[in-house]
């Protein structure tokens, strides 16, 4: 896999997602611990993963990066939606189950949030987390995000409707906590 580091954290590097990464992405996105946490209810085959790569990863209106630890891919992170006029973006991420609890997601989120405010000039970064995903809620809160609201019975996952918690982080909040 290519070694073109875009951002570096304390424990991870973030680099562009390349075609060589599609096998890793497809394998991990089909793991129940991942697809459930991101609200995906159907499996992804090779052509679908390639289509995601070509239509989403290669799109100029998103930022999608591979999280790499010790030269191995461990997950993805990105700004799924960037709204340039109000200067807002939505962050999304996942870390492969065998790498949970090692701080990779928190380090990656910190890197991407810093990049969003310092380089993209964002004013606000948002995130969505399902009610059952306590580790992701803790991650966001550790980076400085505030829970702003709840969309009740918003998605259908594992045979039940789940609430979606909305989080936000404003640039001035980020800067004041970093000072």
TrEMBL record:
GO terms for molecular function: protein N-terminal-serine acetyltransferase activity; protein-N-terminal-alanine acetyltransferase activity. Gene3D superfamilies: 3.40.630.30. GO terms for cellular component: cytoplasm. This is N-acetyltransferase GCN5. Residues 12-172 form the N-acetyltransferase domain. Keywords: Transferase. InterPro entries: Acyl_CoA_acyltransferase, GNAT_dom, Ribosomal_N-acetyltransferase. The keyword Transferase applies. CDD domains: NAT_SF (cd04301).
